Amino acid sequence: MYVANPDLPQTLRGNARLGGADYAHVLERWTTVGAQVHPAPNIVLLPETLAAFLATHRVVYETGLPGDRILVVQILP
Description:
Blueprint: H1 8-13, E1 23-27, H2 47-56, E2 58-63, E3 70-74
Antiparallel strand pairs: 1-3, 2-3
């Protein structure tokens, strides 16, 4: 069974620490068009925010072209 939490974009934007997750599904386009959080407006992350998150944790899967990559990230303690 998988448990999902839709709050990752808000958590990253607020520089909060992730808890209770082993992996995260991240879209690189969150830095350009934003993360869709219906019914609220898209949340656009600063490129530095996403880069810091990716540098702190382990990217285990990556696909897509630069600027539009889809990443699966293992959350490290």
